[in-house]
Amino acid sequence: MPSFLDALKSQVGRKILTGVTGVGLIIFIIFHLATNLQVFGDVHAFNEAAHALESMGWLLYVLEAGLAIAFLLHAYVGISIWWNRRKARPEGYEKYQSKGGSSHMSWASRSMIFTGIVLLVFLVIHIDTFKFGATEMVTLPGGEEARDLKGLMLSTFQQPLYAFGYTAVMILLGFHLGHGFWSAFTSLTMKHNKYSALIYTVGVIFAVLMAVGFLFIPLYIYFGEGCEAALILCQ
Amino acid sequence: MNLDSKVPSGPLKNKWSKHLNDIKLVAPNNKRKHDVIVVGTGLAGGSAAASLAELGYNVKSFCIQDSARRAHSIAAQGGINAAKNYPNDGDTIWRLFYDTIKGGDYRSRESNTYRLAEISNEIIDQAVAQGVPFAREYGGLLANRSFGGAQVSRTFYARGQTGQQLLLGAYQAMMRQVHEGKIEMHTRHEMLDLVIIDGKARGIVTRDLVSGEIQRWMADAVVLASGGYGNAFYLSTNAKNSNVTAAWRCHKRGAAFANPCYVQIHPTCIPVSGDYQSKLTLMSESLRNDGRVWVPKDKEDDRHPNDIPEDERYYYLEEKYPAFGNLVPRDVASRNAKIVCDEGMGVGQTGRAVYLDFRDAIKREGQKAISDKYGNLFEMYENITDDNPYEEPMRIFPAVHYTMGGLWVDYNLQSNIPGLFVAGEANFSDHGANRLGASALMQGLSDGYFIIPYTIGNYIADTDLDEVSKDHEAFDEAANNAQSQIDKLFDVDGDKSVVEFHRELGQIMWDKVGISRSEEGLKEAISEIQDLREEFWNNVRVPGESSNYNKYLEFAGRVADFLELGELMAKDALHRDESCGCHLRAEHQTEEGEALRNDEDYSYVAAWEFQGVNGELQEELHKEDLEFDFVELKQRSYK
Amino acid sequence: MADTFTVHLKIWRQDGPEQPGKLVDYTLDKVNEHMSFLEMLDVLNEEIVAEGKEEPIEFDYDCREGICGSCNLVINGRAHGPKDMTCTCQLHMRNFSDGDTIVIEPFRAKAFPVIKDLVVDRSAFDRIIEAGGYVSVKTGSAPDANSIPIDKTVADTAFDYATCIGCGACVAACPNSSASLFTGAKLAHLNRLPQGEPERKKRTVAMVEQMEEEGFGDCSNYAECEAVCPKGISISAIAEMRRNYVKATLAGTEA
Questions:
Q1: pLDDT tens for each residue of B51-82
Q2: Domain A11-88+105-234, what fold?
Q3: ipTM topping 0.85
Q4: Residue B330 annotated to the active site
Q5: Is C236's CB within 8 Å of A190's CB?
Q6: What is the pTM of this model?
């Protein structure tokens, strides 16, 4: 029997890793979106939520480290699968098309490497913009001093490049999830003929909800009437 | 020629166990010193190779396909017989034996056929243990169905893919031995000659079908399991690559060819649709369990079959054979289909087809039940014909399917050449003049799993096997022979394709050596085949080169052999001036059109010895008399 | 009789594994709708042989009734062509129309090197089976066939997976050239039967490792393999393979 590490490195192990990290990332983005949506809540809700996260101390570092590992593993395995596939078929078809039917071949499934790499690059910019971006400080109702991330978000998405860039990336995230959600279930061996179609449909709905949820915020800020009022309230 | 059948003495049911007690054994540590060549990876070859390797012999296995999993055994649909009597309907080993020997119209060796029935049960055990997913009842135990020529349900099946499942079982057992290093597997290799040294089979010569290289292989014994020769008819239900070459080359080296004229024509195949047709597709005989065979009573009736009322349909099998009805043996069903078509009652565009109708079965059991039993066959039919058999009757017609004849073997399945063993369809042994349904799988596996592994041990233990070398002159001669035949084919450089020659041969065989034969027709066939053979060697065109993958070259060699075998088949049919089983001589029929045997003069195995080809095929006839000590010879009746 | 029609063919010609290949154009009239796809190629080959200018096209086939798994063509970009649950040999020309252009290529994968034209070497599949695709039972040592009852639904499902014909269409159609469906199908057949249970873990690990060693790619759950499989084998087999692999290695004890 192979060792634990060798088993993880096998084709099946790699796929399990993709699935596990993928599920982890799915859970993360659910929380992320939930936090983002606080922007529509109470004036301070968003900054309070962000501040609560930043005040977690060592636990935050553990979560961040976990998240980083999940991201990197997910990306590494994804890229290695893509690399293998080029080795596994050195000479491609002159003509290739999907047979349709029960196939899940789609733009989403065939572009995982593309959408994945875009998300990776996006992530660097995203972290630079928000985690390390310069902000004003605000005083929360509880009296604590906190970074005004809400302000940063509102000002960032006033800029067309950010607003539309984020929107485009979120659409790609939707596609990535569209295949990824279903695929994670199958990779984690939860595939049954009876429920397969159901899981696939749930996955697509989930992907659309996530993408719409995320891209709604920049578009709302850019176009929305409420943005000026919101800005005033913040200051 | 010495045709000693070596049948053990004593009562029928004790012969095999007595033989097992008497034969010599090879000690386990000595087995690894012996090499055995197995040619063919169908049920017989695959099971023999796996079992011999398990015992400890070093096995070299050869097949022409790209994998050992593809031999044509894989296409057997219906099932495999065994005398388990699980359904409690009164089956016994004796009944299975008796049905088989009667079905073969008393032209097989009693002792071999009895042993086959005896071993049948072990095969089922073996296959189940390998994980063969036979059909089961809801209680979890094995299901059975009935098949032609029997009044009990003794056929085990895996939907319509029994052959596939059994073959994969044997293939997997082989692959396990490849993994163990006990089988050396050579795929895409074709045997072109047998090497005989000091009167014993000591090796073979093959052509690597990819590189074209002629290669030599040594062994202490050779098992030939290369299948049947139905493709002599060009159109048959055999796979396109099925051929007689390995067996025929052994025959040319001195192995007697027995009963070449016994060819089974399967009653339920999809009819021919055009001259581009490359093969015929069989619909399992099991369909006759639920399907009813009929033709319109009125020759001029061109209504859609569903519009023809019950009283205007001629259910000819049910009317003529009330006891067995649609389940009469294959030869009887085929012949009757030909008779009604000859009388003008045939259906379809060509008038060479009859209906096989599931309307009543679907009404009785529901479409789901029928689909569970025959789903894949119905799909296959619809795919080929574009007609839906759930809604209208199938159109079927007989086609060449199996050859009972083959290389002569004794009780040990050894040919008259010591060290050359022959298994499965390639030998002549157990089915007489007609094989019952679901018996081919049984015979192939019985030979391979349970007979040859013992009898080869007996031969090896009992024989002085001197060291030989691949440089022996016999190897040189065989290798040169193989190469020169290939060179000769290219040298002709004519302008007629191999396929055309094959098709023409097939037409002669079907018209004159087919379902019904006559003295006049057979004589014509012999002379036409001779002419065709001469034309072949003067005008065949073989494209490409020999040092490369070249399917046309492979076919050219095989068609050359079929052109000789075809003549032998006609000669054998002509000399057998009686009817028996599948061999119907128009001159010898009962008033009801049944095969009329002549036990007085023809109760023997006709074993032909090759003498040469000189315009005419020279063959000497030898006879092994068939003695029936335990069954009484009767006119077969399925009424 | 049915009318005949004309098709334009672009067929992959390649002299050997090391030589470069290319698509070559042919036009064939006299195509009959009842012809099988391979019979159409037979007719073309007969024309090529009659003309004598080039060698006939090599392609694999044997039973021509959809069970041996020999035939293997990618037709207009799809393994075994446009029709569901159908091998190349069972595909009929009625699925095409007059004037159609049909591109014919071999199954492509590093693990399936081209031998000549459309013929490829699929012995990698044999080696996957060799690694563990069997029940280790010696001839003669089997208990009575009815000694172990098996739930009919279990036996029927095992049969569904056992119907794999080893043609390799799953590999050919997979964008990653993965052999997971082939491997998974054999595992799903044997692993669920009581006869296969004792070797379940060992078998799963050995076959998965061999699959990778042969140079097949990873499975990305495209499910294209299931769509092209002429026997309709479900990719549930792949999920099941993963489950058994995890049980045998990551979560399991030493077997």
A1: 999 999 999 999 999 999 999 999 998 899 99
A2: 3 helical TM bundles of succinate and fumarate reductases (1.20.1300)
A3: yes
A4: yes
A5: no
A6: 0.95
